[in-house]
Amino acid sequence: LEHLLQMADVAHLMQEWPTFIKWNYRLFKELFSRHKAGLTSKPSQGWAEGQISFFDGYVLPLATRMSKTGLLGSRGAEIVQCALENRRKWLQDGDKISAVMLSGLDQKQNEDHTLSAILAE
């Protein structure tokens, strides 16, 4: 049960790229607003590296453990593959994506515009 709750918390990281990036951007946006309020540091500083570390240290081990339990059936292997693919794309383009996110927020663009720019990469 504990692993299922953990999965629910980070499920977007183990879904297809458009779903992952939408929820990743929403988290970035939330942290950006906290930064503007003086509550946290600017999220773009280290965002790409932090995402890779989170995939490596938490998401991939969790996805692998859940896949091995068999509770998710054939979807177990799929979540591992989606997480690996999202990590690969983030490793390849994470700095550029972070810059697009930050630019979208700085320019007060709507979410769809910023997400379209990211997904067009």
Summarize the model shown:
The chain has 121 residues and is mainly alpha-helical. The chain has helices at 2-9, 17-36, 47-69, 75-106, 111-119. Helix 1 runs antiparallel to helix 3.
Structural summary, described in words:
This protein has helices at 2-9, 17-36, 47-69, 75-106, 111-119. With 121 residues, the chain is mainly α. Helix 3 (47-69) runs antiparallel to helix 4 (75-106) and helix 4 (75-106) packs across helix 5 (111-119). The longest helix has 32 residues, at 75-106. The N and C termini lie far apart (38 Å).
What is the chain-wise order of helices and strands?
HHHHH
Strand content: under 5%
Looking at the structure, what is the overall shape? globular
Major sheet summary line:
none
List the total number of helices.
Answer: 5
Helix content: over 70%
Instruction: Output mean pLDDT.
Output: 91
Low-confidence stretches: none
Q: Please give the radius of gyration in angstroms.
A: 15 Å
Q: Specify the oligomeric state.
A: single chain
Structural class, from helix and strand content? mainly alpha
Number of strands: 0
Give the CA-CA distance, first to last residue: 38 Å
